[in-house]
User: What shape does this take?
Amino acid sequence: MKDKKSVVGFRFAWAGLKAVMKKESNFQLHLTATAIVIAAGFFFHLSLIEWAVILLTIGLVLITEMINSVIERIMDFTQPGYDERIKEIKDIAAGVVLVTAIISVVVGALIFGPKVMQLL
Ligand SMILES: Nc1ncnc2c1ncn2[C@@H]1O[C@H](COP(=O)(O)OP(=O)(O)OP(=O)(O)O)[C@@H](O)[C@H]1O
Assistant: This one.
């Protein structure tokens, strides 16, 4: 019984993931960047700890983008019309994604920067 519930729960979670992949262009952009970073990781033979940091950073960006999408949907549902309070909530949620995106660029530069330099 519990197993069946877990499988159903997983199916809903997978449906949520598919919805963001299909409907959110920013999420698709992050997924493209993720594929490029992972390919670069194999090319540069990252160490285990470097992989761990890169994967955690990728996860952070994808998760915050998903949370941002959830907040946008709740706001659109709560107040479809223009509202200054909704604007601030959505702007802050977008700011969260921006912060993680900046962190991911810095992490990428720290890990890949020296390796790219060695190639030049
Ligand atoms: N109901 C609203 N009231 C006031 N400002 C809003 C409202 N909806 C959106 N905005 C403003 O428009 C910006 C963009 O909102 P929107 O919901 O279109 O998200 P988005 O960043 O375009 O994401 P997506 O492309 O995923 O829809 C918000 O950050 C906010 O400044």
Observations:
- The chain has a mean pLDDT of 95.
- Residues 25-119 form a domain with the Helix Hairpins fold (CATH 1.10.287.3610).
- The two ends are 59 Å apart (CA to CA).
- The chain has four helices and no strands.
